């Protein structure tokens, strides 16, 4: 995803994005604000690798992982 904005979304897992496929996720120049998950990953729930570039996360909430819940994978953040 590139040049996108996600605000005020909600889900049980992954308030914006739930990914359990075998592909990695790349986010570039995105804004994630006030999203929530009632369980895991206020913005993202993923079992795959995640690359985040020049993105902003504010006011996101979840029981576990207010921004990202990552299972058996790695996350790279770049500014």
UniProtKB/TrEMBL annotation:
Major place of residence: other
Record-linked InterPro entries: Pectin_lyase_fold/virulence, POMP_repeat
Cellular localization per UniProt: Cell envelope; Cell outer membrane; Secreted
Keywords: Cell outer membrane, Membrane, Secreted, Signal
ATP-binding as UniProt keyword: no
Keyword Secreted: yes
GO cellular component: extracellular region
The name this protein goes by in its record: Right handed beta helix domain-containing protein
